[in-house]
Design brief:
By secondary structure, the protein is an all-alpha fold. About 55% of the residues lie in helices and about 0% in strands. Helix 1 crosses helix 2 and helix 1 (about 5-20) crosses helix 3 (about 70-85).
Length: about 90
């Protein structure tokens, strides 16, 4: 899955977590989840759960404190997806 596909799906997840329309989510890979998107610790937890559900992955052994930017979330999604597929 390309980074562009992931960010498109991630925007949908973020909109759901924030309770807003997807069109209002303006982010790129450098966007900070806390300061740029206004997620708090509860929002981060909801985002992680929603990402797991959307992408069919689990953040079991992941240090989620490293998920600071949209790009880092994409990196983790790609990394976990690749491990899941045995790559």
């Amino acid at each position: 899955m390309s980074r562009e596909e992931i960010i498109s799906r991630l925007k949908k997840v973020l909109a759901t977590v924030k309770g807003v329309e997807e069109s209002t989510i303006d982010c790129d890979e450098s966007t900070n989840l806390l300061t740029g998107l206004g997620l708090n610790s509860v929002g981060m937890l909801y985002m992680i759960i929603a990402v797991e559900n959307e992408f069919g992955i689990r953040f079991e052994d992941t240090n989620t404190s490293e998920l600071v930017t949209v790009g880092k979330v994409i990196d983790f999604i790609q990394q976990i997806s690749a491990m899941k597929q045995g790559k």
